[in-house]
Amino acid sequence: MDYAIQLKALIRKELRQIFRDKELLFLLLFMPVMQITLYSFALSPEVEHLRLGVIDYSNSTTSRELVGNLVSNMVFDLKEAGANEDELANKVKGGKLEAGMIIPPELERHLKAGIATKIQIFLDGVDANTAGIAGGYVSQILGAFNNRLQTNSQKQNSSVEPKVTYLYNSGLESRWFFVPGVLALVLNLVSTLVSSAAVVREKDTGTLEQLLMTPVSSFQILAAKVIPLSAVLMVNVLISLLVAVVFYGVPFRGNFFLFMAVSFLAIIVGISIGIALAAYSANQRQSLLTSFFINLPVIQLSGALSPIESMPQFWQDLSCLDPLRYYVTCVKAIMLKGVGFQAIWPNVVILAIFAIVFLSLSSARFRKQLA
Amino acid sequence: MRKIFTQCKKELIQFRRDRLTVALAYFLPTLAIILYGFATRLEAKNIPVTVRNYDIGFYSREYIHTIFNNGQMVSVEWSGSKDTDPLDSGKARAVIIIPPDFSRSIRNAHSASVQVLVDATDVNNARVIKNSIIATSQYFLQSRAIEQNKNLIVPQVRLWFNPGRKESLSVAPGSIAVFLWIFPCLLSTLCISREKEQGTVLQLYASSITSFELMAGKALAYLLIGISQAIVLIGSSCILFQLSFVGNWLVFALATILFLASSVCFGLLGGSRTNSQSAAVQLVATTGFTTSLLLSGFLYPQRNILFPLSLLSNVLPARYYVEACRNFFVRGSGFLDQTYILLALGLAAILIFNGARKVMSKMQLSS
Description:
The complex is a heterodimer of chains A (371) and B (367).
Chain A: H1 2-20, H2 22-42, E1 50-56, H3 61-71, E2 76-79, H4 85-93, E3 99-103, H5 107-113, E4 117-124, H6 128-151, E5 159-167, H7 174-205, H8 207-213, H9 218-247, H10 256-280, H11 284-300, H12 313-319, H13 323-337, H14 341-370
Parallel strand pairs in A: 1-2, 1-3
Antiparallel strand pairs in A: 3-4
Helix pairs in contact in A: 1-9, 2-7, 2-9, 7-9, 7-10, 7-11, 7-13, 9-10, 10-11, 10-13, 10-14, 13-14
Chain B: H1 2-17, H2 19-39, E1 47-53, H3 58-69, E2 73-75, H4 85-88, E3 94-98, H5 102-107, E4 111-119, H6 123-143, E5 153-160, H7 168-198, H8 200-206, H9 211-241, H10 249-273, H11 277-294, H12 307-314, H13 317-331, H14 339-363
Parallel strand pairs in B: 1-2, 1-3
Antiparallel strand pairs in B: 3-4
Helix pairs in contact in B: 1-9, 2-7, 2-9, 3-6, 7-9, 7-10, 7-11, 7-13, 9-10, 9-14, 10-11, 10-13, 10-14, 13-14
């Protein structure tokens, strides 16, 4: 009976401390809103409005039609190209154009004679990803243009038509990709920051020793830290989810309770990391700098912002040790794919193992310190 | 002038004394650039794809062979009961379904359709997968001489500056810019907030040094440290990512100094506005890190940023320095094309320095 009363009293103390700390509350409420907004507005992998300069030596109906085809679907915007190839090349070098096309004078003549004409197209390859996709578009557009040139004269041919269906995100909204990832990322950041602050503060001010003088056990002290924090962070998850679904229109297709259960595991992992950080560092500055040191790889390898399967093998292997990776996979699967437990259970199990191991390690470290 | 140099010397001595900070100042940026340069890949390679082949003919096997032949996609064993099962569990990013009449249609010169289901949760990769499958289908027809069409227009696409599309060439210069923004300003913000936390700033208020001299001295010291960080960071990324210097040295050196100056002054500004070291670090780290990472065009093109934030991105020094780095390491642009970068960075350094000086002078007792 005493045990429960003591625990209750400690939990009430922690809750009061959390709600008194305006900075912390601000972090809890404002961080998800700000981060989700920033990421969904700022990151967009669209390949659109590349600035294209054309030097058209042919100056014929076909060449103009060709240029029209390239610019009509917003992938390319036609811009001033200069008078000759040298000027065009300089503009690309100076970063004023991302693409250039040179149409040779013999285009029309060759077309009539049925000879193939080579058209030079160059793309600024500095942004390798954009250049790759833009190159794919160019060949598709020109392929369709070629087909149209031939339809009148040629006989029916065999062809393979891939009918591509985009599942889960048929409109290719890039926001839908980033928002679930950022939601997971913010939860990880906030839970480590908040829990390490809650422990380190007591260390800094020396109140931890006062707590030890009281009859409560070290387990109660720890439980009193973890329980209210996880409750507050669950509210934080709800706020993030609300922002994502209501403001940014990201669908939520899966099971809500599964989502909350997985989020709870992720919160436990985050809190454990935070407590370990605080237990190992002597003061607030050290724990802040170390958290920077740990969060950077955790976020980068989680697959929240860039796909894991395209990383080099070594980094892919390393990412298996990143608990956030499993949470990101779960959040994306539940929100966008709407799948149930049977599809993502390996991720959930691994996340649970991480939660148990991390919590016992960090609490062992914490209690050792108190002893 | 002498006061500025004395202040600068004092800061450098203090910096050298703190071994841990010195180690972190050079080790953290290098670690961060290794992490970003090697692990940030936007474009998928080795995309896991499964095929359900209902056709028993020759052409479907050839077609599957062509798809996996270019190394971009990796075959994954099909499992589950529904077509979408491998996508649901994340085992594959795409499912290709070949209908039973595939080979027959091709032999009879009809068009054969192939159904492709793509996991579009990652938008960028969904596009890459679609492009790749369409391109392979075209190649399949041409290489098997099934298609007699002769293309009348042959595009010869060349990628400039980065013909092999090595992503490290775009990610590494961008990361140099991002980390040269974050780490110098982190150090300078700690220096000023430490003086405030320990109360030594009161001694400075009481002395005859003006806020301009104080800030200039500190800025100069941390600018020198920043330059040494830049040399370490650029040197290590040249070795790690085989970057070479192809651009104009003068522009890049000037841009680097101006950029570091604005980073250091931003740190001083953050430090003089907050009252404790941890608050200063949080302010500078979160604002500096998120803005330079997200709004500088380091990951995705800067022109894709949506309207209200695109304005913010244009006043961000990191956005200009990312360009300067790419120009110097990859593009090789000339001096005249880059004057706008120098102007923007110079303006930023002056404005931020002035802001920091003003905040500091408000606290000082007027004589």
